[in-house]
Write a structure and sequence with these properties.
Strand content of chain B: under 5%
Number of strands of chain A: 0
Strand order of the largest sheet of chain B: 1-2
Largest interface: A-B, 55 and 53 residues
Helix content of chain B: 55-70%
Largest sheet of chain B: 2 strands, antiparallel
Radius of gyration of chain B: 24 Å
Number of helices of chain A: 20
Order of helices and strands of chain B: HHHEEH
Distance between the termini of chain B: 22 Å
Low-confidence stretches of chain A: 1-7
Mean pLDDT of chain B: 84
Strand content of chain A: under 5%
Oligomer: heterodimer
Number of strands of chain B: 2
Structural class of chain A: mainly alpha
Largest sheet of chain A: none
Shape of chain B: elongated
Number of helices of chain B: 4
Distance between the termini of chain A: 55 Å
Low-confidence stretches of chain B: 1-17
Order of helices and strands of chain A: HHHHHHHHHHHHHHHHHHHH
Mean pLDDT of chain A: 89
Structural class of chain B: mainly alpha
């Protein structure tokens, strides 16, 4: 397998991969430029495309925003290598959408305009709560963005056969530059179309491969799984039931429960997902968005189940482990096994498109939060001349800064073991954001101090627990690789035993939001609560969409 | 407790359709109270139920792997069926909620909104 080490994924044609990806960029940029001509210059258009998307369009875009390269390559690879345990992830990622559907999406659409801060600060003292909401938004977006950008480096090594660090850095910079271009030219309108195109390509690609795999096994999932078991040899049976990855000890079991909690409660607190609900005109369309997203995301995860076991059966765990990128190469290798160089090229391009669409969504969310919450409402106290113009100008500049930071961070983090950043983003969203959103919407007494305690408390606790957890330092050295799976090598300052902080940080954040409220002398603003409740449930006073 | 007249009060007489409604009055109205309790009695228990169902699944996968490994037919075991049932329940709850919202919630919410905005069809 020395060959595989020196040529990227076996059978990969870098020139073909780059050509297909370049075609994707050209087509999407053309579309972004075309749709941006329809745009007006105001903040509403830049942040939310004027609220003019339909529910189905937004639902497809949401799945494009949500299904990152980690869920495509990562989950398929985890199922190929660890079997059932990889499947556990996808269930948490899917069930989580019910929280968004039942409790958050519609009420949020009716009360806010652009950002999560709009809802959290609705009936609170504006400046402190908006500053807190923006801090948490920027933190979650940054962790997520860094994970995606660093992942882009690994993906390049895998698919384009670029092994030098300099070459990978250049590609990370290109991804960042494209992302900035999409956001600056197209705003939310352009970003949404990129996400829609990517979602269609990703789900269609996975669907075709799934049917292909099933055809080879007589349309029997049982036969696909049997193939994977047989190929894996003596330990094959373990692929069928839970425990291969998380069943090692009492701690790893608890860790899995902790992860499961963060996954299921984190989605409805991810700022870039919340912001998508503002791109539709009404709560009913927000509801339809989530329904479309649930069906598409559910379907996609069912595909990854077949693809994962299919890669196990057709490619085999040994070949996957030895390929560059290990687990992440399972889906590309399966594509090659099925459809040769061309299908591999298509899947590689889809994986890139995936990263691009997700980072563009994160960038516009973070820049909106900075411009709208921090600049306009905290720094300028809402007193700005020509607010619309200024706000968009600040948001565009922020997007450039965030893009540059993401490029620098991605280059620095390239090759580091920072896969935990996505789990961290979910943990912060579930701890800092979700309790505050739910209290704001449903608990009359909730007040400014409560909101600040749950946001800053949730963020702080999650960060502290992660820093002093085994993912950062202190995991024993793996005999096979000679390295510790922790991020830092050769030091050990961990005292928190779990990789995932959710089990502790989520309940504590709910508790802090409660304590902050009842221990404060501040009385909740009943008039504002009446307005918020009536508006959130009835949609009264919602601005009309500018464009259909 | 009538909500039909949003206060047009002392402001300029015409052209000003956006006078702030009296939210507290609307909130206290029986129509709105019914709407709120209808939503809450639907979504709160359902949220509790699906979270419990999901946690049951996570706990079984973590702490009862041998139960999950019992084969039912072919290579399909209890764990896989449990996992697929999470998909089924998610799709079913989604469909159920949309039906509730379209038939039982939206008409009442729309009626109150039109009263507030004063532009009934």
């Amino acid at each position: 397998m020395i060959l595989a080490q020196t040529t990227g994924v076996e059978g990969s044609s870098p020139i073909l991969n780059i050509s297909i990806f370049a075609a994707f960029v050209v087509i999407t940029l053309t579309i972004v430029i075309t749709v941006s001509k329809k745009a007006t210059s105001g903040a509403k258009d830049f942040y939310t495309a004027g609220g003019g998307f339909t529910g189905p369009q937004n639902g497809i875009a949401i799945s494009g925003d949500y299904l990152s390269a980690a869920s495509f390559l990562g989950i398929a690879g985890a199922i190929a290598l660890y079997g059932y345990d990889g499947f556990l992830y996808s269930i948490g990622f899917l069930v989580a959408w019910l929280v968004a559907l039942l409790l958050v999406a519609e009420l949020l659409r009716n009360t806010g305009r652009y950002t999560m801060g709009d809802v959290l600060a609705f009936r609170m003292r504006q400046r402190p709560v908006r500053a807190a909401a923006a801090t948490s938004t920027l933190a979650v977006s940054f962790f997520y963005l860094l994970a995606q950008m660093a992942g882009a480096g690994g993906l390049v090594a895998l698919l384009l056969d670029i092994k030098s660090k300099t070459g990978q850095s250049i590609v990370i910079a290109i991804v960042g530059a494209l992302m900035i271009a999409y956001v600056l030219i197209g705003g939310m309108r352009g970003t949404t179309w990129v996400q829609i195109i990517k979602a269609v390509l990703l789900i269609a690609g996975a669907g075709i491969m799934t049917v292909w795999v099933l055809t080879l096994f007589g349309f029997s999932l049982s036969a696909v799984m049997g193939g994977a078991v047989e190929r894996a040899g003596a330990t094959g049976e373990k692929l069928l039931s839970p425990g291969a990855q998380y069943g090692k000890s009492g701690l790893t079991k608890l860790d899995f429960v902790s992860l499961g909690l963060a996954l299921v409660l984190g989605t409805a607190g991810l700022p870039h997902i919340l912001m998508r609900f503002y791109t539709v005109p009404t709560a009913k369309e927000a509801r339809r968005s989530v329904v479309w997203a649930i069906w598409l995301i559910g379907l996609f995860y069912l595909f990854t189940l077949v693809l994962g076991y299919g890669a196990g059966a057709l490619v085999g765990p040994d070949a996957i482990k030895k390929a560059p990128g290990a687990a992440n190469s399972a889906a590309p290798l399966l594509a090659y096994e099925l459809g040769g160089t061309v299908l591999l090229g298509l899947i590689a391009a889809v994986a890139f498109a995936t990263i691009l669409a997700v980072v563009a969504g994160l960038t516009i969310t973070a820049s909106a939060s900075f411009a709208h919450d921090i600049y306009i409402n905290v720094i300028k106290r809402g007193q700005v001349q020509d607010e619309q113009h200024t706000e968009v100008k600040i948001a565009r500049r922020t997007a450039v800064v965030i893009g540059l930071v993401a490029i620098a961070g991605g280059i620095l983090a390239n090759g580091q073991n920072i896969a935990f950043l996505v789990a961290l983003a979910f943990a912060v969203a579930a701890s800092a954001n979700l309790p505050t959103i739910l209290y704001s919407l449903f608990w009359k007494r909730f007040n400014t101090q409560g909101a600040l305690w749950s946001i800053y408390g949730g963020l702080g606790i999650t960060l502290i627990l992660i820093i002093f957890s085994p993912v950062v330092s202190g995991k024993p050295v793996d005999a096979a690789t000679g390295k510790s799976p922790s991020m830092l090598q050769g030091v050990d300052f961990h005292w928190f035993p779990l990789d995932n902080p959710g089990l502790i940080s989520i309940p504590l954040s709910f508790l802090l939001g409660y304590l902050g409220t009842v221990l404060s002398k501040e009385r909740a603003d009943e008039g504002k609560y009446a307005e918020m409740e009536v508006r959130s449930l009835t949609g009264a006073g919602v601005e009309k969409a500018v464009d259909h | 407790m009538s909500t039909t007249e949003s206060p047009q009060g002392s402001g300029p007489p015409s052209g000003e359709r956006t006078n702030a409604p009296d939210w507290a009055t609307v909130q206290a109205s029986p129509e709105f109270q019914r709407l709120r309790s209808r939503l809450r009695t639907f979504v709160f228990p359902l949220t509790g139920a699906f979270l419990a169902w999901y946690l049951l699944y996570v706990l079984l996968a973590s702490y009862a792997p041998s139960f999950m490994a019992i084969k039912l037919f072919g290579n399909i075991n209890v764990g896989l069926v449990f996992g697929l049932l999470q998909f089924v329940s998610t799709f079913a709850i989604t469909t159920w909620y949309v039906r509730f919202a379209d038939k039982k919630f939206d008409p009442a919410a729309t009626a109150i909104r039109e009263q507030i905005e004063g532009d009934g069809k």
